[in-house]
Write a sequence for this structure.
C-alpha cells in the first residue's frame, strides 16, 4: 500500500506548473486530455475565464469538478510529500509537518544572486548549491578578508557603487561581507551561506578605525534575503561622514570583522553553569 501511494505521489505532477502535490492542497482537476491540474493553477485559470484562457496549457478545457479519489488518497495518514524543489533535483520526501523546515534549508531551493543586493542588476535566481559558482562566473571572484581597504575615485565620490564581496569562514561556514554606496549612504552587512534558520544563530561586529573609531553590531543575514529585507541588519552611515571619520588621506581604512556563533556560545555557557542541553528553562544547579 505504501509503495502504491508513493508511485501515485510521484506521478501526480501538475501539467501547468510542473509541481507535485502540496500539503492542504488536495483538489486536483483534469483537462480533456487527462492532464492533471493542481488546485492553485485551477484558481488562476478561473480568474482568466473572461479572457478565454479557462484552459490547460495544452489548450483543452479543464473540468469544473475535482477528482474525489485523488483528494481521498492525498488525505491518507502518514503520507509524505515531495519537496517543492523537486524540479531542481531534490528527491527527498517528508511528512507535512517536516516539509516546510526541509524546504527552507534544501540545497536545491532558489536564492537570489548576492549581486542583486549590491546593484539590483542581476535578476537571476539560482539554486543554493550553485549560488557561489554563479557569482564567481558571472560577476566577480570573491575576495579574501584583508585590511586595509583602498577606495578608488568612484568610491570616494559618493556616487552609487558597490564593492567586491569579501569571504571569510567561521566553524567551516562561509560568510560574505557586502559593501555598497547607494543614494549617498554607505552600507555594509554580512551574509551567511545558509538558511534563515541557521542565520539566526550568528551575529557580527564591524569595527572601523580611522580618525575616529566606529563599532557596529548586527545580526547576520541569510543568503536567501534580499537587500530590502535586511535594513535592521546593516551598518549604514552617510557616505560623507564615513569618508571624513574613517578613510585616510591615502583613501584607505582599517577594519575588523568578528562573527559570533550564538548557539555555540549558549552551549558553552550552559556547560560552565552545569546546565545540560536537555535541562528545561527552570533547571538549576
Amino acid at each position: 500500500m505504501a509503495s502504491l501511494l508513493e508511485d501515485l505521489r510521484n506521478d501526480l505532477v501538475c501539467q501547468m506548473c510542473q509541481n507535485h502535490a502540496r500539503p492542504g492542497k488536495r483538489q486536483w482537476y483534469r483537462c480533456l486530455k487527462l492532464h492533471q491540474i493542481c488546485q492553485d493553477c485551477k484558481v488562476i485559470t478561473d480568474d482568466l475565464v473572461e479572457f478565454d484562457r479557462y484552459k490547460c496549457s495544452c489548450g483543452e478545457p479543464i473540468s469544473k469538478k475535482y477528482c474525489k479519489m485523488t483528494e481521498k488518497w492525498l488525505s491518507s495518514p502518514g503520507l509524505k510529500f515531495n519537496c517543492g524543489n523537486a524540479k531542481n533535483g531534490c528527491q527527498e520526501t517528508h511528512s507535512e509537518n517536516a516539509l516546510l523546515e526541509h524546504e527552507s534549508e534544501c540545497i536545491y531551493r532558489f536564492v537570489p544572486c548576492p549581486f542583486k543586493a549590491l546593484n539590483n542588476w542581476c535578476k537571476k535566481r539560482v539554486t543554493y548549491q550553485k549560488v557561489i559558482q554563479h557569482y564567481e562566473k558571472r560577476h566577480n571572484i570573491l575576495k579574501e578578508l584583508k585590511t586595509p581597504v583602498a577606495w578608488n575615485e568612484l568610491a570616494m565620490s559618493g556616487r552609487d557603487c558597490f564593492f567586491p564581496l569579501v569571504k571569510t569562514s567561521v566553524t567551516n561556514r562561509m560568510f560574505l561581507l557586502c559593501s555598497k554606496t547607494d543614494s549617498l549612504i554607505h552600507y555594509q552587512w554580512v551574509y551567511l551561506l545558509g538558511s534563515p534558520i541557521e542565520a539566526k544563530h550568528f551575529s557580527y561586529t564591524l569595527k572601523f578605525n580611522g580618525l575616529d573609531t566606529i563599532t557596529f553590531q548586527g545580526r547576520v543575514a541569510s543568503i536567501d534575503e534580499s537587500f530590502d529585507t535586511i535594513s535592521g541588519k546593516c551598518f549604514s552611515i552617510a557616505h560623507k561622514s564615513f569618508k571624513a571619520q574613517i578613510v585616510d588621506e591615502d583613501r584607505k581604512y582599517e577594519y575588523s570583522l568578528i562573527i559570533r556563533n550564538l548557539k555555540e556560545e549558549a552551549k558553552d555557557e550552559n556547560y560552565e553553569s552545569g546546565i545540560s542541553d536537555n535541562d528545561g528553562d527552570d533547571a538549576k544547579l
Observations:
- The radius of gyration is 25 Å.
